[in-house]
Amino acid sequence: MGNIVNALSKFGNAFSGLGSTLMVPIIIMVVAMVFRVEWKKALKSGLLVGAGFQGISLVTGLLGQSLSPCAKILFEKFSIDLRYVDAGWAAAAGIAYSTEIGAIIIPVIIAFNILMLTLKLTRTVNIDIWNYWHYAFIGSLVYAVTGNLILGFLGAFAYCAFSLRMADYTAKDVQEALGVPGISIPQAASISTAPIAYVMEWIYNRIPGFKNLHVDVKMMNKKMGVLGDPIIMGFILGTLLGFAVGYNVKDAGTLGIKLGAVMLLLPRMVKVIMEGLLPVSEAAKAFMRKRFSGQEYYIGLDSAVGVGTPAAIAVSVLIIPVYVILTICFPGNQCLPISALAGTVYTGAISSCVHKGDFLRTFITSCVCAIFAFMGSTFIGGAVTMVANGINYAFPEGAAGITYFSPSGLSYITIMGLLQNGWIGAGLLAVVMVVFFWLTREKKAA
Q: Of 58-67, 120-129, 364-373, 391-400, where does mean pLDDT reach its minimum?
């Protein structure tokens, strides 16, 4: 048994060591060839998708570098001093892959995904392997607070099962919004916003007056004329934000240019990804139709494919004041979400698809998701700090503890909150998962 675990650990470490930049094109090429795509087309598809993701990484990096100083100025103005500093997704991933669970999470989750596909509990083939760290992360937190490795893996499996099932449930909305058939988004942090988005959509549609109000960014662009052009809108938003935090004309204008570039380039990078995915998607559909009596499967991708929607980009800028207000005013909050500012563009990636591109609905839902993010990051702060201490992680200067500020706050509160109570909590979590699968039965695999 020990030899098997060691072999799995080496396999997982080798995969995670490649990094997402290299892993993504390799995986796309392999998947394409499995579905009988000609090797030349498979190679081009892999490189296009890899280039698109790299482009998104560069553009979102520019967004984070541009917005973080503004938020820091706002935080400093209010002299905010909290217990936990958000260390960001890169630190969380590094911590997750450095634990006993993280060492073998990749092959274990691949096997679990295959099991769910075999049992027809999901349609999603999750090739977003780099982001398996999310499952290792919550599993490691559960292990840290319970001291029980089995409960830790149960937490990882529960999070994976939820992510795959929710990816199935949102697949048609995602495909319609992005214009690409055959894909879904199982990335755990982003897909955790989907249940909130569907509940909010149900509420919106029952509010007199509001249910007939649709604020579509593209429609706004047309009505506003030249002012509605994405690059001009980004310039205006960035410049106004710069002036709001006290920048001079030069710095505010520079910020405006950078945000305009983000709003121009992100959708174009997503189109590059779509160009690479289209041959794979078509081949996958033909392959499955021939061998599995037309049963439909989805290729599970990173939520980066959803960040190019106009609503998601606009929300990424306007959510910053909301973060500052909640940091100061939300009762019981102990998280300073500094690193999260680099990833605000992912905030509305799923909800913008659920809300059919409606900006106002996406923004309100993102505000609600932010509340759960603050709750979740405060809730897990002690466990994250404990795990980080165990692997001798270097804390940011002046930080007493660290946490991970993520849209998956509701998932963390549910899974970890139950499993920290031991096997009784595990039983309750099983009930929750059964109810969840029953509620999503209408879109389950046939």
A: 391-400
Q: CB within 8 A of 120, min separation 6: which ones?
A: 444, 445, 446
Which residues have C-beta within 8 Å of that of residue 409, sequence separation ≥ 6? 192, 369, 372, 373, 374, 375, 376, 377, 379
Cα–Cα dist 258/268, whole Å: 16
Least confident of 33-37, 59-63, 217-221, 245-249: 217-221
Cβ atoms 284, 328 nearer than 8 A: no
Extract the tokens encoding 46.
Answer: 């892999």
Centroid of chain to Cα 250: 34
Q: Which residues of 225-235 are buried (b: 16+ CB within 10 A; e: fewer)?
A: eeebebbbbbb
Query: pLDDT tens, 381-398?
Result: 889 888 888 777 666 665
Residue 179: CB atoms within 10 Å: 10
| Average pLDDT value for residue range 279-307 | 74
What stretches of 72-159 adopt beta strand conformation (E)?
84-86, 124-126
**Category of 331 on φ-ψ map: left (φ > 0), alpha (ψ -120 to 50) or beta:** beta
DSSP 407: T
Write down how long the chain is: 446
- How much is the pLDDT for 250? 86
Strands 183-184 and 335-336, how do they pair?
unpaired
